[in-house]
């Protein structure tokens, strides 16, 4: 699991999914059970899966609030990993505070070359915190997508914290 979270290793993610849940179909069933009605797992290709900010927020709530799918020990383990993301991935939600747990994603659309850039997680400052999902598409470059997300997170943090 550490390679999946710390290094965004899609092969490690697929291996864990196959070993622990029984494959992509099982993951889709969990998403359906969580009423993530706008999320579709693409069998075998993570980059072609689709989702929405509201669906990703449902997923974050399963991680940060009591859950029937994830034990408290597993939640704590995953969150701990999300505080140790590789330094070259310290962008996105990371811009909101020095105290964050987060996961980023990025890829080109494979057709026109525009970038899809995402960042989700929890931002904490003192005794205040908030969950955040930032999804950005149609970016000319990966860096442009990162900048959009970081501006949104900074504005959110200024307002909420």
UniProtKB/TrEMBL annotation:
Residues 2-106 form the Beta-lactamase class A catalytic domain. GO terms for molecular function: beta-lactamase activity. One of its GO terms (biological process) is response to antibiotic. InterPro entries: Beta-lactam/transpept-like (IPR012338), Beta-lactam_cat (IPR045155), Beta-lactam_class-A (IPR000871). SUPFAM superfamilies: beta-lactamase/transpeptidase-like. This is Beta-lactamase class A catalytic domain-containing protein. It comes from Tetragenococcus halophilus subsp. halophilus.
